[in-house]
C-alpha cells in the first residue's frame, strides 16, 4: 500500500474519532455553535472517504481507455469535497437561525468545551500531517483534505472562544451568531478547494517557478541542438506532463538526436519525479529563433 493510501485511511479513522468527540460535546451542552463544529466533522469524514476512493482510482495504471492514466480522479475528489462543504454550511446556517430566534441556555459548558478542545487538538495534528505529506506527494486530494481540516481547526478555536464569552456574559445569542460565522468560514473554504481543483481539471500550466526550472534544464542538457520552443506543461494529480519541440541540425543522425532527448528527459525526470516528457524533434529550418536557447 502506498504512503498516500495509508494517509487517506488514517484520515477516515481520525475523522470518525473527532466526529464522535464533537458529537459528545454538543450532546452535553446543547450549544448550536458546538453542533456546527460537529456537523463540519461529518463533512470531514465524507471528504476523507472521497479522497480515499479518488486515490485508489488515481493509482491505477494506464489502460486502453485511459492511456494517460487516472490521475485526474483526485481533482474530482476535491470538487466533491467543496460541494459537501457548501452543504454543511447551509445546514449550520439553518440551525443557527432557529437558535437565534429562540436562544438556549448552554448546559455543562466547561465539560463540553474541554471535550471539544481535545477534538480540535487531534484535528490540528492530523491537519499538519495532511498538508505536509500532500505537498510532498503532490496529491491534490490530500491537500484539499488538509486545507478543509485547517478550516475546521480555525472554526473550533473561534467556537471555543465564543462559547466561553456567551457563558461568562450570559449573551446566549452569541452561540448561534458564532455558528453562522463558522458557516461563512466553511463556505469560503469550499470555494477555495473547488477553485484549485477546477484549475487542474482545465489543464492549468505548472507554476512559473517550475516552468523556469524546466527551461534551464532543457537549455543545460540540449548540447548539440539548436533551440527548443513551444514548451507546454500541465499537472494531473501528482504527474507533471511536459512537451516541447527540439530543433536539431538537419544533418544530425537519428541516434544523436535521440541521445540529446534522453539527456533532457533524464534531467527533467530527476527534477520532477513521475514526470512524463514528450519531445518533438524538428530539422533546423523549423527554428523559430525564440523560446529556449541551447547553451
Write the layout of secondary structure elements.
Elements: H1 3-29, H2 32-58, H3 73-101, H4 109-137, H5 140-169, H6 174-201, H7 208-221, E1 227-236, E2 239-247, H8 254-271, E3 276-282, E4 292-293
Parallel strand pairs: 2-3
Antiparallel strand pairs: 1-2, 1-4
Molecular structure report:
The chain crosses the membrane at residues 7-28, 34-55, 75-93, 113-131, 152-171. The protein has 2 domains: 3-201, Alpha-lytic protease prodomain-like, CATH 1.20.1510.10; 208-293, Cation efflux protein, cytoplasmic domain (Alpha-Beta Plaits), CATH 3.30.70. Helices cover 68% and strands 9% of the residues. It is built from 8 helices and 4 strands; from the N terminus they run αααααααββαββ. It has helices at 3-29, 32-58, 73-101, 109-137, 140-169, 174-201, 208-221, 254-271, and strands at 227-236, 239-247, 276-282, 292-293. A hairpin with a 2-residue loop joins β1 and β2. α2 (32-58) packs antiparallel against α3. The protein is elongated and about 85 Å long.
Question: What are the main properties of this structure?
Answer:
alpha+beta, elongated, 8 helices, Cation_efflux_CTD_sf, Alpha-lytic protease prodomain-like, 295 residues, transport, 2 domains
Provide the number of structural domains. 2
The CATH class of the largest domain: Mainly Alpha
Q: What fraction, in percent, of the residue positions are helical?
A: 55-70%
Structural class: alpha+beta
Order of helices and strands: HHHHHHHEEHEE
Tell me what portion of residues adopts beta-strand conformation. 5-15%
Topology, number of strands: 4
C-alpha-based Rg, rounded: 25 Å
Number of discrete helical segments: 8
Q: What integer is the average pLDDT?
A: 80
Largest sheet, in brief, is: 4 strands, mixed
Shape by Cα distribution: elongated
Strand order within the widest beta sheet? 3-2-1-4
Question: In CATH terms, what is the architecture of the largest domain?
Answer: Up-down Bundle
* N- and C-termini, Cα separation: 43 Å
Q: Can you tell me the CATH topology of the largest domain?
A: Alpha-lytic protease prodomain-like
The low-confidence parts are: none
Give the full name of the CATH homologous superfamily of the largest domain.
Cation efflux protein transmembrane domain
Amino acid at each position: 500500500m502506498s504512503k498516500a493510501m495509508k494517509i487517506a485511511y488514517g484520515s477516515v479513522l481520525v475523522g470518525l474519532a473527532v466526529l464522535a468527540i464533537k458529537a459528545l460535546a454538543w450532546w452535553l451542552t446543547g450549544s448550536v455553535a458546538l453542533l456546527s463544529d460537529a456537523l463540519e466533522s461529518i463533512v470531514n469524514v465524507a471528504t476523507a472517504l472521497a479522497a480515499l476512493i479518488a486515490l485508489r482510482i488515481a493509482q491505477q495504471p494506464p489502460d486502453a481507455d485511459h492511456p494517460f492514466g487516472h490521475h485526474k480522479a483526485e481533482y474530482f475528489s476535491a470538487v466533491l469535497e467543496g460541494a459537501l462543504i457548501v452543504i454543511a454550511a447551509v445546514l449550520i446556517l439553518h440551525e443557527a437561525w432557529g437558535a437565534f430566534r429562540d436562544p438556549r441556555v448552554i448546559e455543562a459548558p466547561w465539560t463540553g468545551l474541554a471535550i471539544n478542545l481535545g477534538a480540535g487538538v487531534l484535528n490540528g495534528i492530523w491537519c499538519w500531517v495532511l498538508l505536509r505529506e500532500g505537498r510532498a506527494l503532490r496529491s491534490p486530494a490530500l491537500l484539499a483534505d488538509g486545507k478543509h481540516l485547517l478550516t475546521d481547526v480555525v472554526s473550533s478555536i473561534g467556537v471555543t472562544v465564543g462559547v466561553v464569552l456567551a457563558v461568562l456574559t450570559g449573551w446566549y445569542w452569541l452561540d448561534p451568531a458564532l455558528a453562522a460565522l463558522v458557516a461563512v468560514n466553511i463556505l469560503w473554504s469550499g470555494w477555495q478547494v473547488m477553485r484549485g481543483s477546477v484549475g487542474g481539471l482545465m489543464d492549468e500550466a505548472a507554476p512559473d517557478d517550475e516552468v523556469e526550472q524546466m527551461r534551464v534544464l532543457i537549455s543545460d542538457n540540449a548540447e548539440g541542438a539548436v533551440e527548443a520552443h513551444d514548451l507546454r506543461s500541465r499537472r494531473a494529480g501528482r504527474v507533471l506532463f511536459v512537451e516541447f519541440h527540439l530543433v536539431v541540425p538537419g544533418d544530425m543522425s537519428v541516434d544523436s538526436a535521440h541521445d540529446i532527448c534522453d539527456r533532457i528527459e533524464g534531467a527533467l525526470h530527476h527534477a520532477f519525479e513521475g514526470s512524463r516528457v514528450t519531445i518533438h524533434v524538428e530539422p533546423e529550418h523549423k527554428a523559430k529563433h525564440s523560446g529556449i536557447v541551447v547553451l
